[in-house]
Structure formats: structure tokens, C-alpha cells
Amino acid sequence: MTGASASQKDYKTVIPGDVFALWVDRLGEQYTLTGPVGGGVTARFEDISRFAQMDLDYQSTMLPPGKRYLFEPAEEILSYDISGESNIPGNNRETGGKQQKISVNLPGLPAGRRALIGVHPCDVNAILYLDKVFLRGPYIDPFYTARRENTFIIALNCKSVTDLCFCHLLGAGPYLKARAGYDMLLTDMGRGKGFLVELVSEKARELFDIFSSGRPPEEKDLSAMREAEASLLKGFKKNLDMAGLQNALLSRPDHHALTETSDSRCLSCSNCVMVCPTCFCHNVREETGLSLSRGGKSRIKKIRRWDACQDISFAKVHGGNFRAKRHARLRQFVFHKLDYEGQLGTKGTVGCGRCIRWCPTGIDLTEIAMAMMK
Amino acid sequence: MIETEGNAKGASVPVKAIIRGVKNEAPGVRTFLIEKSGPPAQPPCLPAARPGQFNMLGYPGVGEAPISFSVLHPEKTTEGRNQKNQKNLFGHTVRAAGRVTGFLSGFVEGDEVFLRGPFGRGWPLEEARGKHLLLLTGGLGLAPLKPVIEMAPTLGASGVTLLHGAREPRDIIFKTELARWKSEGAIEIELTVDNPEDNPDKGQKQQPKIHSGLITELIRPLRIDPSETVAFICGPEIMMRFAARELLIKGMAGSGIYVSVERRMSCGTGHCGHCQIGPWFTCKDGPVFSYTQLKGLPDVIL
Ligand SMILES: Cc1cc2nc3c(=O)[nH]c(=O)nc-3n(C[C@H](O)[C@H](O)[C@H](O)COP(=O)(O)OP(=O)(O)OC[C@H]3O[C@@H](n4cnc5c(N)ncnc54)[C@H](O)[C@@H]3O)c2cc1C
Ligand code: SF4
Ligand code: FES
Hints:
By secondary structure, chain A is of the alpha+beta class. Chain A contains 12 helices and 14 strands. Chain A has helices at 3-6, 17-27, 65-70, 121-134, 142-150, 202-207, 219-233, 256-265, 271-274, 326-338, 354-357, 365-373; strands at residues 12-15, 32-37, 44-48, 74-84, 101-105, 114-119, 136-139, 151-156, 184-188, 195-199, 282-288, 295-306, 316-317, 320-321.
């Protein structure tokens, strides 16, 4: 760290776009670069080789970058190797106590380094939410922890809002307020004016070696940012008293707005859950190799996969199903997003609007909540 | 550096254990005495396990099922008394219900089993100090309370009463233990069955005596001082519903009534989300909850 940059008290600098792009390209020597390609609301995060491939004017992606890259859709978490005399438990007396030789193997932890570039504020907040699930006790998840450790997050304040966004109701956007838990924050200062770059983490201060080639932001830059944010805030279409929902939805569990919407329109397709950046549910299954021959070797893998509370078997137990009814499953989704703040100390939604956008029948949790509160 | 908080090791990695004893309890129900192998520091961190907690018990390729501890005091069981290595011994009582439990039920002495745990919060034993402890159980629900009964003299409770219901006389588990507890006199015991007809021991002198009818009919005549009583209930959710309601009618507060509930579980560690009830995770916030914690939440039968 040079003396000049260290004296910049907020680690903020304004950098010309092309200079910043060169730095990102250079970052690609150490990190896999992953950023938004294809624009609008159907952009997607992909591995790229150059800054220029990204569309930083994108509005949304179907899969959220945090969940997609920090919590893999399918992942082997453990395997068993079975060798020796194949013996099924319960036959022990007949075989004179011979046992299968079973070893438990842990896969190596993910090691590749990735830079996630252009993550919108809602999606950064969703990562902070997933942190609460996987990084805080009583147990922490080693796979998520390793990926989180190896991922460099470059956030990007939004430049436009869509009709389905409601991050403003949750303080999750359109400008990022969190000042920890990610590495850098970019604000596009507009045509030809470059980026205002904020170095949030120690790691960013280490890696961003062109800090002093920028200029310190002036008051006119900061006021331009405030104006841009204020004008974005005027563009939101959705309004809902978020704070008033806690325990209020819960007190109307069978409200017709919920039951009628689900019974007439919900397909239980689980799209809403799959595209949700905070939905963390998964299932662990064991997959057996095909060579269970006597004396042969075989491998059984434990695979965890994203799962959804909309699936009819999600809450099934032996002899019953706690959410056999479709509306009970949709209620679980809506309440988990909008009511159960007690679970992790914050609402389960960041207002990205994906569940609304990707629902094939256009079910909108904010409309359900609004009707329930009438 | 990413900040984490909690136990990183072992929770998702099963350890091997050996079946040291098998006891038939009732049709389809067996108790397995299990010895943990492997280094002492490796989870499950027994004997740290507390009554009401559970292990994920399984076998490679078959799967896992959450099963409560039914033996935490091996020295108090006939099978465990003569075993060496008592501090690594514990037990589970399993009903062959489906795929995983059906497989587990076939285990014989010497077999290997794989497990993770202990998970969850146990019974709030400290709440029983100075109070009358009422244990209401149905069917296999007696299993997670067996360790509580076995440590009853150490709880400092002013008295302990067990009311246990089963479908038929032959479904009553822990018959030898029930007879012994009765004769030791440390706790009061009443048993009831829904259907008294089908009694294999008919004609023999029952010890203890078995009533007929639902457990609620045993609760109704009880005289309790509501503020001086704490209740632990475990059984089918519908049974817990009616049992808890009887106690509320007697003036007990929901905060003094504890239930142990069953939900679908996949991880046991608070990550997979399957076991959620309202804002709670059954695996880490439960499976023992106060009635107040669960009352009014969707998808709860209480
Ligand atoms: C905290 C707790 C403590 C418990 N304590 C005990 C105890 O002490 N003793 C006892 O006997 N029982 C206990 N149980 C109940 C026991 O866990 C269940 O009986 C057991 O999970 C049944 O599993 P199974 O595979 O044998 O039954 P199944 O009926 O085969 O399966 C049970 C559940 O798993 C699902 N499932 C299984 N395989 C698949 C698959 N391939 N795909 C999709 N879904 C699948 C089923 O849909 C069903 O929901 C406890 C449960 C809990 C939650
Ligand atoms: S995306 Fe829409 S139709 Fe599909 S499960 Fe969700 S709410 Fe139901
Ligand atoms: S069993 Fe997975 S969260 Fe409780």
C-alpha cells in the first residue's frame, strides 16, 4: 500500500473505465473472471476472459451469482468406498463376523479462485444472508466456507430498476449500503466519467494496485451519485410496508389471497425457489455405483442438490406429509421470504424480483402479501 | 479471512460404530446398544449427548434417519451392565417403518453402523428442578424420555410421573424397564392401551397394570399444581396435541409444556431446510420445543 492511497480515508477513487478494464483483465491472471453477459433481465453470469465481454448495464439474471457460485447446484460432499468381502449387515453371524471394508472419503475442498464481477446490491445482500445459513453455528459448511474464502466479490450499484424490483423496501438496493462482506464496490459515473471504486476489504486494497492512478472523488462526484440514487428510487413500482409483515402474515395463515392464488395458479414447479438468491434448501442423496459384486470395489457418493419447499415430498415423513397441500407449500415460500424474520434476524427476501419474473403463471409474493394485509 | 462461527468438523462426516447388543422391544421395534469406535475427540462427542438429542443413523448406500437416544446410561440396562468400555456405549430404539429404518432393524451384534451426531437441543432438564415432572408418552415416544427416567433421581424434581400409552399391550416398549422403574418406586407410572383385547400376556398378572383408553383419560383425573409442574411430551403429534390441551385446561402455561416433534431431516446441521417449522429448524432449535414456541405456526398439528 502506498502512502498516498493509505491516506485516502475511505479508499475511494475515480478511475477511467478503460484503466479499470485493464486492471480486471490483469486480475484474470490470478482469478477466474465471472461476470454478466447478455443484457437486460435475462443476462447470465459466465466465466469470461476479458472485461469487454461483460455487459455492466445488465438488469438481472435468472440464476443469482452468489448462490450459483458459492453454493453449487449439485456437489459431492462425501463418498464411501466398499471393498473386500461383500457382506450385508444382518448376515454377520453366517459369515462369521466378516465385514465389508468401508472407508469414508472426503472430497478435497474447492480451491479455484474466482472473481465475481458486477454483482448487484440485492445479490450481495443475498450472499450476506447465505453467510448466516452456512457460516454461523452451530455448524458451518466447509464447502461454502472454502468457496467464500476463494471468491473475490466486485459489487456494482444499479443503473436502472425493473418493474419487479423491490429492494428499496428492504434497504438492499439500488445502492449498496453494506460496508463489509464483499471486496469492492463500483458505481458507474456515467458516460466517459469512469467508475467510482470503493475498496471495502483488505484483499481489495492489496489487489487494486492502480488505486493512486485514479483521482480522489470530489464533492460533485458524490452529489452526482446521490442524485442518481434518488432518481432510481423514484422508478420503483412496488410498495409494501415490509416491517408490518412480520407476524402479521402469520396471523392469517389461511387467507384466501394465498389459498386462491395457489390453488388456481401455482404449478408447484419450484422455479421461484430455484431462482431465489436466498433460498438455501437442499437435499442429500446417496448414489450407488453399479459394481456391488462379491469381493469387488464400489463407490457410493453423497450428493447434495438444491431442493425446493414447493416439491410435494419436501416435508414428507414416514406416514405423513406436513405440507401435502399446494397452498401450504406456497405459504412456506411467501412467509419465509416476508414474515419469519426471527429465523436469521433479517427478512428472507432481498427484493430482486426473480421469483415473480420466472413464475410461469406470474404469481407475485408482494401482491399476495398486499392482499393479505388489506 | 471469512469469519465463521461454529463447529466446522465432523457434523457431516459419519463415523463407524459397532452394534454390541440387540433387544426386541415390540413387534417391529428393537433397541440397539452401540459402541462408538474411533478416537474420542471425533464426533459423536459422547458422552456429551443429552436426553432428547438424536443421531443421524445410517448405512452407506441406504441412507440416514434421525433417531433419538434411548440409552445414555448403559450401566442401567441389562445388556449394557456387563459390557466394557461403558463410556462409549449408547443406544437407539428403532421401529422398522420404511426404507432406512427397515434396513437398520436388521442389524445383529457385531455389525457396523454409521452415524453422525449428537444433534439438537435435548429436554430442558433444569426446568424440572424443584417441580413435579410429568412425562406423557405415546408409542415409541417413550424412547427419547427413557434416559430422563433413568436419571430422574438426579434431577431434583419434587416428583416424577410417567403416563404412557400404546396401541395394544404388545406394542408397549421397555416392558422390563417399566416393571423395574415401578418396583424401584422412584417414579409413578400409569400405562394405557387403545385396544386391550389383543393381549398376548392375557391371564398373567400385569406389572404394572394396564388401563384401557386414550392417554388423555389418564391425564384428566391427575391433580396437579399448574405452576409447580413441568411436562415433557413425546408421541405422535396428534397425541401431543390432545395431551397438551388437557394440561392447558388444568391451568398449565404453554411455556411449561415441552414437546419433541418429528420433521423430515436431511442434514441435521441446520443447513438443508427440510425440518423447518415457521422460523425454527427442528434439527438445531428442537426437536424439543415449548408448546408456546410452536403454537399457531402453520403445518403444526399441536
Ligand atoms: C428428531 C427425531 C427423532 C426420532 N427418533 C426416532 C426413534 O428414536 N426411533 C424411531 O424408530 N424413529 C425415530 N424417528 C423417526 C424416524 O426418523 C423415521 O421413522 C424415519 O426417518 C423413517 O425413515 P425410513 O427411510 O425408514 O422411512 P421411509 O418411509 O422409507 O422414508 C421416510 C421419509 O424419507 C423420505 N424418503 C426416503 N427415501 C427417499 C427417496 N429416495 N426420495 C425421496 N424421499 C425419500 C420419505 O419420503 C419419507 O419422508 C425420529 C424422527 C425425528 C425427526
Ligand atoms: S414459480 Fe410460480 S407456479 Fe412455480 S412453484 Fe413458484 S409460485 Fe408456483
Ligand atoms: S435437518 Fe437439515 S436443516 Fe434441519
